[in-house]
Sequence to fold (301 residues):
Amino acid sequence: MVFPEDNQYSYARWQLGKKLFYDPVLSRDSSLSCASCHKLELAFADDRAFSPGIQNRPGTRNATSLTNIGYHPYFLREGSVPTLEMQALVPVQEHNEFDHSMPEIAAKLQANARYRQMSEEAYEREPDPWVITRALGVFQRSLISGNSPYDRYQYQGESQALNKAEIRGMALFFSSRTQCASCHSGFNFSNYAFENNGLDSVYQDPLRMRLTNDPADEGRAKVPSLRNLAFSAPYMHDGRFQNLAEVIQHYQKGGAGHPNQSELIRPFSLSNQEQDDLIAFLLALSDPTFTQNQSFSEAGH
Ligand code: HEC
Ligand code: HEC
Fold:
């Protein structure tokens, strides 16, 4: 993982970032923290399709898991934000999330002796917007997960870590029949490309087109990681699927036929046994040692 030159890891920075991540001081009415929508026990995702912001203002997208987020080359589904440091500004300023401003937050933190001390230890300066965004970046880069049954099987030589159904599901996942691994590839099961995976023929949320205004980008989203799906339901940008059976039903139908739909999305047919196997494999990409890691919790060290 690449840490920016001006924001290398230190324990003091990580502690400050974690404290900020859990602190509702970041929201205008002090009602919500980052962790209100990115919950440790849900692999830093949310189980609500749309997480409400302050005063119950309606959210517009499903909160993504922050699993291995430090490896992503850009952020949000349209890929509009180049760094984690800049990403922190989005929920802070967003009307439907924290509806706050960095200078006001910094002023509140500067009035707090504990924050002044932690900020001095971490960055040798006052808690200002530069410090706040950087500390949050350091904490989020530590959210590394790589101890799923699949990892133990694939990288740690534990041939018993996957059972027979999971191994059959793995073969299906990597087959040209399903094409799953053409987009969900690599260590994080994402090639980070912007793809239209055939959810709709008309998109309520234009996804990447929101950024580029180019109709060729309508319905394209950054391919999501498939790690920790056992914790992060519901699925897709609008949380439309409650479980993985619904996801696989969707892919088997071959998509709604939007002009931008990827050619890799086309109908295929799995027996009930094969569907169960594929689901078993997808669930074997989940890492309970991650969601149970108490050092990521508010009280942990
Ligand atoms: C009200 C709910 C809510 C709060 C509060 C919130 N987020 Fe999010 N977060 C979301 C949603 C929804 C998305 C997905 C947005 C999208 O796809 O465009 C997201 C996306 C992200 C992403 C990008 C993930 C990716 O895959 O590209 C990061 C990083 C992130 N949030 C970090 C934070 C941090 C840090 C905070 C606190 C400063 C925070 N979030 C507060 C709901 C929230
Ligand atoms: C053309 C590239 C592509 C192919 C092929 C593909 N996907 Fe996806 N997948 C995506 C994109 C893009 C999304 C995000 C769509 C959205 O959020 O609207 C996604 C979302 C998902 C999600 C939801 C993840 C989440 O956290 O919300 C799952 C699960 C998933 N895909 C599994 C699969 C499986 C299983 C296959 C094979 C049957 C497959 N995908 C094939 C591109 C692809």
User: Anything to note?
Assistant: The mean pLDDT is 97. Residues 26, 32, 34, 36-38, 51, 53, 59, 61, 63-64, 66, 69, 72, 75-77, 84, 87-88, 91-92, 97, 136, 140 surround heme C (ligand 1) (CB under 6 Å).
